[in-house]
Amino acid sequence: MESSRKSIFLGHDKERKWISVISLVIGLVILVMKFYAYHITGSQSVFSDALESIVNIVAGIVTLIVIVIAAKPADEDHPYGHGKVESMAASFEGGAITLAGLLIILKACEAFYKDIEIKQLDIGLLIVVLTGAGNGIMGYIIRKRGIKLHSEALQSSGIHLMTDALTSIGVLVSLLLVKITGVMMIDPIIAIIFGFMLCLSGVKILVRSGNVLLDGHDRETLQLIADLFEKNYVPGVIDIHYTRVIRSGNFHHIDCHMVIPEFWSVSEAHVFSERYDANFVEKYPVDAELRIHLDPCRRVYCENCELKDCPIRERVFVKRIPLNNLEEVTSPTESR
User: Fold this and answer.
1) Domain-wise residue ranges, the chain
2) Of 109, 175, 182, 291, which residue is 20 to 30 A from 4 by alpha carbon distance?
3) In order along the chain (336 residues), what is the average pLDDT of each group of 10 residues?
4) What is the pLDDT of residue 2?
5) What CATH number labels 2-213?
Protein backbone atom coordinates (compact mmCIF):
# COMPACT_ATOMS: atom_id res chain seq x y z
CA MET A 1 0.00 0.00 0.00
CA GLU A 2 2.82 2.38 0.92
CA SER A 3 4.66 1.69 -2.36
CA SER A 4 1.52 2.36 -4.42
CA ARG A 5 0.99 5.63 -2.52
CA LYS A 6 4.58 6.70 -3.23
CA SER A 7 4.13 5.88 -6.92
CA ILE A 8 1.06 8.12 -7.01
CA PHE A 9 3.03 11.08 -5.64
CA LEU A 10 5.93 10.39 -8.00
CA GLY A 11 3.38 10.54 -10.80
CA HIS A 12 2.18 13.89 -9.46
CA ASP A 13 5.75 15.21 -9.49
CA LYS A 14 6.14 14.18 -13.15
CA GLU A 15 2.83 15.82 -14.03
CA ARG A 16 3.90 19.09 -12.37
CA LYS A 17 7.14 19.06 -14.39
CA TRP A 18 5.39 18.33 -17.70
CA ILE A 19 2.80 21.04 -17.10
CA SER A 20 5.61 23.52 -16.44
CA VAL A 21 7.49 22.52 -19.62
CA ILE A 22 4.39 22.73 -21.84
CA SER A 23 3.42 26.08 -20.28
CA LEU A 24 6.91 27.43 -20.96
CA VAL A 25 6.92 26.34 -24.62
CA ILE A 26 3.46 27.78 -25.31
CA GLY A 27 4.45 30.95 -23.45
CA LEU A 28 7.46 31.44 -25.74
CA VAL A 29 5.25 31.15 -28.83
CA ILE A 30 2.76 33.66 -27.40
CA LEU A 31 5.60 36.04 -26.47
CA VAL A 32 6.89 36.11 -30.07
CA MET A 33 3.37 36.68 -31.41
CA LYS A 34 2.72 39.59 -29.02
CA PHE A 35 5.98 41.39 -29.77
CA TYR A 36 5.31 40.97 -33.48
CA ALA A 37 1.90 42.56 -32.90
CA TYR A 38 3.56 45.46 -31.05
CA HIS A 39 6.14 45.83 -33.84
CA ILE A 40 3.52 46.22 -36.56
CA THR A 41 0.97 48.28 -34.58
CA GLY A 42 3.07 50.46 -32.27
CA SER A 43 0.26 50.16 -29.68
CA GLN A 44 1.12 50.86 -26.03
CA SER A 45 -1.59 48.49 -24.83
CA VAL A 46 -0.17 45.72 -27.02
CA PHE A 47 3.28 46.53 -25.61
CA SER A 48 1.89 46.16 -22.07
CA ASP A 49 0.48 42.76 -23.02
CA ALA A 50 3.84 41.71 -24.51
CA LEU A 51 5.77 42.92 -21.47
CA GLU A 52 3.61 40.75 -19.22
CA SER A 53 4.47 37.75 -21.39
CA ILE A 54 8.15 38.30 -20.61
CA VAL A 55 7.21 37.93 -16.95
CA ASN A 56 5.32 34.75 -17.89
CA ILE A 57 8.45 33.27 -19.44
CA VAL A 58 10.73 34.19 -16.54
CA ALA A 59 8.15 32.90 -14.06
CA GLY A 60 7.74 29.71 -16.13
CA ILE A 61 11.48 29.02 -15.98
CA VAL A 62 11.57 29.66 -12.24
CA THR A 63 8.50 27.46 -11.71
CA LEU A 64 10.09 24.57 -13.60
CA ILE A 65 13.28 24.85 -11.53
CA VAL A 66 11.49 25.01 -8.19
CA ILE A 67 9.18 22.10 -9.02
CA VAL A 68 12.26 19.95 -9.63
CA ILE A 69 13.71 21.12 -6.30
CA ALA A 70 10.39 20.69 -4.45
CA ALA A 71 10.18 17.07 -5.61
CA LYS A 72 13.32 16.17 -3.64
CA PRO A 73 12.55 14.03 -0.59
CA ALA A 74 13.13 15.16 2.98
CA ASP A 75 16.71 14.84 4.23
CA GLU A 76 18.70 15.53 7.37
CA ASP A 77 18.93 19.26 6.69
CA HIS A 78 15.33 19.58 5.43
CA PRO A 79 13.18 17.31 7.62
CA TYR A 80 9.94 18.72 6.15
CA GLY A 81 11.12 18.37 2.56
CA HIS A 82 11.82 21.10 -0.01
CA GLY A 83 8.25 22.10 -0.84
CA LYS A 84 8.50 25.62 0.63
CA VAL A 85 10.54 26.60 -2.39
CA GLU A 86 7.26 26.59 -4.38
CA SER A 87 5.93 29.39 -2.20
CA MET A 88 9.22 31.26 -2.65
CA ALA A 89 8.77 30.97 -6.42
CA ALA A 90 5.20 32.23 -6.13
CA SER A 91 6.49 35.24 -4.17
CA PHE A 92 9.03 35.91 -6.93
CA GLU A 93 6.29 35.70 -9.56
CA GLY A 94 4.06 38.05 -7.58
CA GLY A 95 6.89 40.57 -7.33
CA ALA A 96 7.67 40.25 -11.04
CA ILE A 97 4.01 40.82 -11.98
CA THR A 98 3.85 43.91 -9.76
CA LEU A 99 7.04 45.27 -11.36
CA ALA A 100 5.69 44.61 -14.85
CA GLY A 101 2.52 46.52 -13.96
CA LEU A 102 4.54 49.52 -12.80
CA LEU A 103 6.69 49.46 -15.98
CA ILE A 104 3.56 49.33 -18.14
CA ILE A 105 2.14 52.38 -16.35
CA LEU A 106 5.40 54.32 -16.78
CA LYS A 107 5.70 53.36 -20.47
CA ALA A 108 2.08 54.30 -21.16
CA CYS A 109 2.50 57.67 -19.44
CA GLU A 110 5.29 58.50 -21.92
CA ALA A 111 2.75 58.29 -24.73
CA PHE A 112 1.01 61.41 -23.45
CA TYR A 113 4.08 63.44 -24.40
CA LYS A 114 4.70 61.82 -27.79
CA ASP A 115 2.86 61.51 -31.07
CA ILE A 116 0.93 58.25 -31.18
CA GLU A 117 0.37 56.35 -34.40
CA ILE A 118 -1.22 52.89 -34.41
CA LYS A 119 -1.01 50.87 -37.63
CA GLN A 120 -2.25 47.56 -39.07
CA LEU A 121 -5.01 47.19 -36.51
CA ASP A 122 -6.65 44.22 -38.23
CA ILE A 123 -3.58 41.98 -37.88
CA GLY A 124 -2.96 43.29 -34.37
CA LEU A 125 -6.53 42.46 -33.34
CA LEU A 126 -6.24 38.91 -34.69
CA ILE A 127 -2.99 38.25 -32.80
CA VAL A 128 -4.40 39.67 -29.58
CA VAL A 129 -7.46 37.38 -29.82
CA LEU A 130 -5.34 34.28 -30.47
CA THR A 131 -2.80 34.96 -27.70
CA GLY A 132 -5.47 35.96 -25.20
CA ALA A 133 -7.46 32.79 -25.81
CA GLY A 134 -4.29 30.69 -25.55
CA ASN A 135 -3.33 32.24 -22.21
CA GLY A 136 -6.85 31.96 -20.83
CA ILE A 137 -7.24 28.27 -21.66
CA MET A 138 -3.74 27.40 -20.49
CA GLY A 139 -4.10 29.43 -17.28
CA TYR A 140 -7.41 27.77 -16.37
CA ILE A 141 -5.98 24.27 -16.91
CA ILE A 142 -2.78 25.00 -14.96
CA ARG A 143 -4.63 26.53 -12.01
CA LYS A 144 -7.05 23.59 -11.83
CA ARG A 145 -4.17 21.10 -11.87
CA GLY A 146 -2.28 23.22 -9.34
CA ILE A 147 -5.24 23.00 -6.95
CA LYS A 148 -5.55 19.26 -7.58
CA LEU A 149 -1.83 18.68 -7.01
CA HIS A 150 -1.57 21.20 -4.13
CA SER A 151 1.16 23.08 -6.03
CA GLU A 152 1.48 26.72 -4.97
CA ALA A 153 3.76 27.47 -7.93
CA LEU A 154 1.31 26.08 -10.51
CA GLN A 155 -1.65 27.85 -8.93
CA SER A 156 0.19 31.18 -9.05
CA SER A 157 1.20 30.59 -12.68
CA GLY A 158 -2.38 29.75 -13.60
CA ILE A 159 -3.74 32.90 -11.92
CA HIS A 160 -1.08 34.95 -13.70
CA LEU A 161 -1.95 33.52 -17.12
CA MET A 162 -5.67 34.12 -16.59
CA THR A 163 -4.87 37.70 -15.60
CA ASP A 164 -2.82 37.95 -18.80
CA ALA A 165 -5.89 36.78 -20.74
CA LEU A 166 -7.96 39.55 -19.12
CA THR A 167 -5.27 42.03 -20.12
CA SER A 168 -5.59 40.80 -23.71
CA ILE A 169 -9.33 41.44 -23.57
CA GLY A 170 -8.58 44.99 -22.46
CA VAL A 171 -6.09 45.40 -25.30
CA LEU A 172 -8.68 44.08 -27.74
CA VAL A 173 -11.24 46.63 -26.48
CA SER A 174 -8.60 49.36 -26.70
CA LEU A 175 -7.70 48.59 -30.31
CA LEU A 176 -11.35 48.31 -31.32
CA LEU A 177 -12.14 51.70 -29.77
CA VAL A 178 -9.15 53.27 -31.55
CA LYS A 179 -10.25 51.68 -34.83
CA ILE A 180 -13.85 52.91 -34.42
CA THR A 181 -13.21 56.40 -33.00
CA GLY A 182 -9.76 57.22 -34.35
CA VAL A 183 -8.84 58.62 -30.90
CA MET A 184 -5.27 57.43 -30.31
CA MET A 185 -5.11 58.50 -26.63
CA ILE A 186 -7.50 55.68 -25.72
CA ASP A 187 -4.62 53.24 -26.19
CA PRO A 188 -2.27 54.46 -23.41
CA ILE A 189 -5.22 55.06 -21.05
CA ILE A 190 -6.29 51.41 -21.38
CA ALA A 191 -2.66 50.35 -20.89
CA ILE A 192 -2.48 52.30 -17.60
CA ILE A 193 -5.70 50.73 -16.35
CA PHE A 194 -4.40 47.25 -17.00
CA GLY A 195 -1.05 48.15 -15.48
CA PHE A 196 -2.87 48.85 -12.23
CA MET A 197 -4.75 45.55 -12.59
CA LEU A 198 -1.45 43.72 -12.97
CA CYS A 199 -0.09 45.37 -9.83
CA LEU A 200 -3.18 44.27 -7.91
CA SER A 201 -2.82 40.69 -9.18
CA GLY A 202 0.86 40.62 -8.22
CA VAL A 203 0.15 41.88 -4.71
CA LYS A 204 -2.54 39.19 -4.22
CA ILE A 205 -0.06 36.47 -5.19
CA LEU A 206 2.53 37.96 -2.81
CA VAL A 207 0.04 37.91 0.06
CA ARG A 208 -1.04 34.33 -0.69
CA SER A 209 2.50 32.94 -0.98
CA GLY A 210 3.65 34.94 2.05
CA ASN A 211 0.87 33.36 4.11
CA VAL A 212 2.14 29.89 3.18
CA LEU A 213 5.76 30.80 3.98
CA LEU A 214 4.66 32.07 7.39
CA ASP A 215 2.55 28.92 7.98
CA GLY A 216 -0.60 31.01 8.23
CA HIS A 217 -3.97 29.34 8.69
CA ASP A 218 -5.53 28.17 5.45
CA ARG A 219 -9.22 27.54 6.13
CA GLU A 220 -9.68 25.39 3.04
CA THR A 221 -6.89 23.00 4.04
CA LEU A 222 -7.96 22.92 7.68
CA GLN A 223 -11.57 22.20 6.70
CA LEU A 224 -10.32 19.36 4.50
CA ILE A 225 -8.48 17.95 7.52
CA ALA A 226 -11.51 18.37 9.80
CA ASP A 227 -13.79 16.62 7.28
CA LEU A 228 -11.32 13.73 7.08
CA PHE A 229 -11.22 13.53 10.90
CA GLU A 230 -14.99 13.03 10.81
CA LYS A 231 -14.87 10.45 8.01
CA ASN A 232 -12.08 8.61 9.83
CA TYR A 233 -13.94 8.57 13.15
CA VAL A 234 -13.89 5.40 15.27
CA PRO A 235 -15.16 4.89 18.86
CA GLY A 236 -12.41 6.02 21.22
CA VAL A 237 -11.82 9.33 19.43
CA ILE A 238 -13.72 11.53 21.87
CA ASP A 239 -12.51 14.95 20.76
CA ILE A 240 -9.88 16.52 18.49
CA HIS A 241 -8.63 20.08 18.96
CA TYR A 242 -5.60 22.35 18.44
CA THR A 243 -5.13 21.19 14.85
CA ARG A 244 -2.35 22.92 12.92
CA VAL A 245 -0.74 22.29 9.54
CA ILE A 246 2.58 23.21 7.96
CA ARG A 247 2.28 23.23 4.16
CA SER A 248 5.53 22.50 2.36
CA GLY A 249 4.64 22.23 -1.31
CA ASN A 250 2.75 18.97 -1.76
CA PHE A 251 3.78 17.73 1.71
CA HIS A 252 1.71 18.62 4.77
CA HIS A 253 2.78 18.18 8.41
CA ILE A 254 -0.33 18.02 10.62
CA ASP A 255 -0.44 18.30 14.43
CA CYS A 256 -3.49 17.74 16.61
CA HIS A 257 -4.55 16.93 20.17
CA MET A 258 -6.86 13.93 20.56
CA VAL A 259 -8.91 13.10 23.67
CA ILE A 260 -9.11 9.34 24.30
CA PRO A 261 -10.39 7.15 27.20
CA GLU A 262 -8.20 7.69 30.25
CA PHE A 263 -8.29 4.04 31.34
CA TRP A 264 -6.39 2.84 28.26
CA SER A 265 -2.83 1.74 28.90
CA VAL A 266 0.09 3.47 27.19
CA SER A 267 0.41 0.49 24.86
CA GLU A 268 -3.28 0.51 23.93
CA ALA A 269 -3.26 4.27 23.33
CA HIS A 270 -0.13 3.99 21.20
CA VAL A 271 -1.52 1.24 18.99
CA PHE A 272 -4.82 3.09 18.62
CA SER A 273 -3.18 6.39 17.60
CA GLU A 274 -0.78 4.66 15.20
CA ARG A 275 -3.68 2.91 13.47
CA TYR A 276 -5.68 6.15 13.27
CA ASP A 277 -2.62 7.98 11.90
CA ALA A 278 -2.09 5.38 9.15
CA ASN A 279 -5.75 5.40 8.08
CA PHE A 280 -5.87 9.20 8.00
CA VAL A 281 -2.67 9.63 5.98
CA GLU A 282 -3.76 6.95 3.52
CA LYS A 283 -6.88 8.97 2.66
CA TYR A 284 -5.22 12.40 2.66
CA PRO A 285 -4.97 13.87 -0.87
CA VAL A 286 -1.24 14.74 -0.71
CA ASP A 287 1.79 13.27 1.00
CA ALA A 288 1.45 13.99 4.73
CA GLU A 289 2.29 13.02 8.28
CA LEU A 290 -0.04 13.26 11.28
CA ARG A 291 1.37 13.78 14.76
CA ILE A 292 -1.16 13.16 17.55
CA HIS A 293 -0.82 14.44 21.12
CA LEU A 294 -3.00 12.28 23.37
CA ASP A 295 -5.13 13.79 26.15
CA PRO A 296 -7.08 11.73 28.77
CA CYS A 297 -10.85 12.17 28.91
CA ARG A 298 -10.81 12.81 32.71
CA ARG A 299 -14.40 11.49 32.84
CA VAL A 300 -15.87 14.84 31.79
CA TYR A 301 -16.67 13.54 28.29
CA CYS A 302 -18.94 10.64 29.30
CA GLU A 303 -21.98 12.15 27.56
CA ASN A 304 -19.92 12.52 24.35
CA CYS A 305 -18.19 9.12 24.35
CA GLU A 306 -19.95 6.17 22.74
CA LEU A 307 -17.27 3.65 23.65
CA LYS A 308 -18.99 0.48 24.88
CA ASP A 309 -18.11 -1.36 28.10
CA CYS A 310 -16.34 1.65 29.63
CA PRO A 311 -15.41 0.68 33.23
CA ILE A 312 -15.23 4.28 34.51
CA ARG A 313 -18.33 5.77 32.86
CA GLU A 314 -20.22 8.18 35.16
CA ARG A 315 -22.97 9.36 32.78
CA VAL A 316 -24.78 7.76 29.85
CA PHE A 317 -23.79 8.60 26.30
CA VAL A 318 -25.94 11.37 24.75
CA LYS A 319 -24.21 12.77 21.67
CA ARG A 320 -20.68 12.71 20.36
CA ILE A 321 -18.75 15.86 19.40
CA PRO A 322 -18.59 16.26 15.58
CA LEU A 323 -15.01 16.36 14.33
CA ASN A 324 -15.68 18.53 11.25
CA ASN A 325 -16.44 21.75 13.14
CA LEU A 326 -13.50 23.93 12.11
CA GLU A 327 -13.64 26.28 15.10
CA GLU A 328 -13.59 23.41 17.61
CA VAL A 329 -11.02 21.33 15.74
CA THR A 330 -8.58 24.25 15.58
CA SER A 331 -9.27 25.59 19.09
CA PRO A 332 -6.18 25.40 21.33
CA THR A 333 -8.38 24.28 24.23
CA GLU A 334 -10.59 21.21 24.68
CA SER A 335 -14.34 21.34 24.20
CA ARG A 336 -14.71 20.72 27.94
Assistant:
1) 2-213, 219-330
2) 291
3) 44 66 79 80 72 73 74 71 71 79 77 66 76 81 77 72 74 75 77 81 82 77 92 92 84 90 93 93 86 91 88 89 89 79
4) 45
5) 1.20.1510.10
Select 219-330's CATH number: 3.90.550.60, 3.40.50.300, 3.30.70.1350, 3.40.50.880. 3.30.70.1350
**Letter for the amino acid at 333?**
T
pLDDT for the residue numbered 299: 86
Q: How many other CB atoms sit within 10 Å of the CB of residue 286?
A: 19
